[in-house]
Every structure is written in C-alpha cells, then in structure tokens.
Design goal:
Strand order of the largest sheet: 5-4-3-2-1-8-7-6
Strand content: 5-15%
Number of helices: 12
Shape: globular
CATH class: Alpha Beta
Order of helices and strands: HEHHEHHEHHEHEHEHEHEH
CATH topology: TIM Barrel
Largest sheet: 8 strands, parallel
Structural class: alpha/beta
CATH architecture: Alpha-Beta Barrel
Helix content: 25-40%
CATH superfamily: Glycosidases
Length: 348
C-alpha cells in the first residue's frame, strides 16, 4: 500500500468517457457539501496483523477498537478507511456482517464514519482462514494480505463468490449513514498483477452500481504510469480519491491536476515522515484546497507500519516512525504533531 501517487497534468492526461450510472458532478458536489472536512486514518487495530485477524470472530477485538478509535476521535478525526476481506465473509457471512455492524456502532458513537475497502493487490498472495501468522519482527506490513490475489487466476469460479460477497455487504450497509463511502479496489495492477486485475476491477464496479448505495463509490489512483487503470478508475468514481506519499510540492501538483474534474477529492493514503510527507506539511495544503486527508496508520501495532518499508527486520524501532501516530497505550509518537492535527481539525 505504501506506493506513490504523484501526478501532474503533463504526466496524467485523462480522457475517460462518462461511465454509466456514475453520479453527476452536481450530485457528487452536493454530497461533499454536506460532509465535514474529511480527515482520518487507515485503521487496523494494533492487535491485528492483517484484515483477517481484525474481522475473524476469534480475534475481533472490540475493546481495542473502541480504545484506539477513541484516540482518533480525541484529535478530531471523523473518518476511518478500513479494509475488509472476502475470506472472513466466506467463513460466516452473517457473523461477519454482525461484526461490521458492531464496529460501525463503536465508530459512530465516537463521531467517526468509515470508508470500506473491498479488494487489494498489495502484499501477501497466500492467505487462509483461522489463526494468522505472527508478524516477522521489525518487518513493515509483514502479514498484510491481498484480496483475492492470484487465487482468482487459479479458481475462476471465485469471481462468482466475490460477486455475492460484494453485493451482500453493499446491500446490507448501502443505506447506512455510518458508512462514508465505498472504496472498491486498492491499487489495482500493483505488485505485478498488471492487466490480470482488469476483470475484477470491471466487475466490482458493475456489482456496486447494481446495489445502488446511497454513498458514493471510488477507486483510488496511485501511479501516473498506469494510464489505462487511471482513466477507468476516474471514469467510474463518484468522488475522486488518490494516494500520495511524497513532499508537499508533489501533493499540490497531484491536487491541481485532479481538481480539474470538478469532483470531490480525497487523499486516502499519505504521510510518510522520511519522505517529508507529514501532517505539518500536508494538512494545511489539503484543508486550504478542500481536499479530504486520510493518512496511513493510526496505532503502531502488529502490522508494524511504523518501521520502514523494505527493511529486512530485526532492527530497533526507528527513531523517526515511517507511519502511525500513537503507541497502543495512547501516547503520541510526537505530542506536538497530535496537537497540530487536533488544532487543524477543530479550527473552522
């Protein structure tokens, strides 16, 4: 997930035709006018090593979810981006939906809405139900899972299962005001999937549209070289989302190139401190330009995304965290940083 989206007009010229059933610009902007400034984080409880550990019944940790979303609420965050996984649904669809409802109840009580992510081409291709592997000590995102990954190439019938899954979740929660928006597919084509991601990408848009949720749908863009994917993703998104882990000049270029579509714009992944992508540098830019700001990581935990990406493991905790904001006990990595976030969120 930690890959860059840094675009400018000269790099990303999108000529996508209007997609069937996409919200008109007026509806998208009317929706955005009714939202607060959307700020928050990608959320995984610190006790979960990946999406399955978060959502499976045996490891669904409401106490930690409540405590850690409380940290987010205290600094003014109002939106969490949260990954699902079809295996948790396949195990027990009714139980999975009940756990989603429990999560949403906790988040809503704390003033937080949620953007759910269905599919993801990033990180580990092999996965299984049941107990999840322990994190590899000191390795960034060592057990994060693709969904569905290469399994869909080996088992073509899985596409039918995924259709039922997506429609079940959106039908159940597509009129639920606790859901902010639907993020259908994280970084399609990434981690070597390339054109193999097209069938699922096209299908998930159809499935979501068929359910007619009241919330907008989106598929975030992240790589200016993926022009075909970018065109399709923008043409099929009610609101435009993107990822950017570079410095403020890169962020400004990306925003300026995307705001010409006149649709709501939300950055759903940013904040990599060693890259000079920080709250202090980026939140003022996004607030001024009326762009939503959802950073990577809330609490340093079993995902270990406070360690640098690409490290071999075994190193001590870095002095400068890569991502994340809080220790599990609620202490801030940098109290001045959290005070700044709170001030940005509370100011008119």
């Amino acid at each position: 997930m930690k890959y860059l989206f840094s675009c400018c007009v000269s790099l990303l010229i999108l000529t996508a035709a209007k997609a069937q059933e996409r919200w008109p610009v007026s509806r998208a902007n009317d929706w955005y006018q009714q939202q607060p400034w959307i700020t928050g984080a990608n959320f995984l409880p610190s006790t979960a090593v990946n999406q399955l550990e978060m959502w499976q019944a045996e490891t669904f940790d409401t106490a930690t979810i409540n405590r850690e979303l409380g940290y987010a609420s205290a600094i003014g965050f109002n939106t969490m981006r949260v990954y699902l996984h079809h295996v948790a649904w396949k195990q027990d669809s009714a139980g999975f939906k009940q756990r989603i409802n429990e999560y949403l109840t906790i988040a809503s009580r704390l003033g937080i809405k949620t953007a759910f992510v269905f599919f993801d081409d990033c990180w580990k291709d092999q996965y299984h139900a049941g107990p999840q592997p322990e994190p590899i000590p000191g390795v960034h995102n060592s057990q994060w899972l693709k969904d569905p990954g290469g399994l869909i190439d080996q088992q073509p019938a899985l596409m039918d299962t995924l259709e039922v899954y997506v429609k079940d979740i959106i039908t159940t929660f597509g009129r639920d005001d606790r859901v902010r928006f639907w993020d259908l597919y994280n970084e399609p084509g990434h981690f070597g999937h390339g054109d193999k991601s097209w069938p699922l990408l096209r299908n998930v848009v159809k499935w979501a549209r068929n359910c007619q949720p009241m919330q907008p749908i989106t598929i975030g863009i992240y790589n200016p070289a993926f022009t075909g994917f970018n065109e399709f993703q923008i043409a099929n998104s009610d609101i435009i989302t993107f990822h950017n882990y570079r410095d403020s000049s890169s962020m400004i270029a990306a925003i300026d190139s995307l705001q010409r579509y006149n649709r709501p714009l939300i950055c759903t992944e940013y904040m990599k401190r060693p890259n000079n992508s920080t709250f202090l540098t980026h939140m003022p830019v996004m607030k001024r330009k009326k762009v939503g700001a959802i950073n990577w990581g809330l609490v340093a935990g079993r995902s270990q995304t406070h360690y640098p990406q690409g490290n071999k493991g075994g190193e001590p905790v870095p002095e400068l965290w890569y991502h994340d904001i809080f220790y599990p006990d609620g202490r801030a990595f940098d109290p001045k940083e959290t005070a700044f976030i709170r001030d940005m969120n509370m100011a008119p």
